[in-house]
Design brief:
This protein has no helices and 21 strands. The protein has strands at about 10, 15-20, 25-30, 35-40, 45-55, 55-65, 75-80, 85-90, 95-100, 105, 110, 115-125, 125-130, 135-150, 155, 160-170, 175, 180, 185-190, 195-200, 205. Strand 5 (about 45-55) and strand 6 (about 55-65) form a beta hairpin.
Length: about 210
Amino acid sequence: SIAKEPLNHEQIEDFTSVNLDLVSMDVKVEKSSENAISYRLQDAKKQKLEYSVQNGVLTVKETISDKHFVGHDDNEVVIYTTNDSLVVNGNLVAGDVEIENVTLKDSRVTSVSGDISIENGILNNCSFITTSGDVEFDGQLTGDNSLETTSGDVSVENISNVSVTASTTSGDIEIGEEEFTGSVTRVLGSNNATLTLNTTSGDIEIN
């Protein structure tokens, strides 16, 4: 069995923007009563996490020294923010992204094989893209936004006042009780924001 590395937790300066560069680690961003970062490395001999806050920007970077390294579930970083609104940009290889109770603006996050989940959030001009993971969103929208995956499913709940364009190559599209294939555009409520949903071989579900 692999011995767990200790959980590191440190309070950090206030930040309004996050830049992520992660290889194997999952990342979670959540509203909190403190600005802090908490993480557990799977193997401190093979991987390193560096982070710093400069001019309101939190930069988090993971480096791995062993090309055969494979991540697992204990391998994660949690970012706590006192701010209601953040700009989050980043690239992940094998990690999942989970964001809770935060407004995201002008953000773009990509993952190769991870899932992306945004709960009770507000998106304003944001893009979230994964290749082989699922994308889930629950919240409100302003501006132009897109959620994309190649071989995963896309699920969107509790959205309103948005023009949604959904397209899939070999999956199904479900909007409420209606089912479609190919591509479809629907205005839900008023046309105050746009949301583009794309998947190649997955399903799209909108409630």
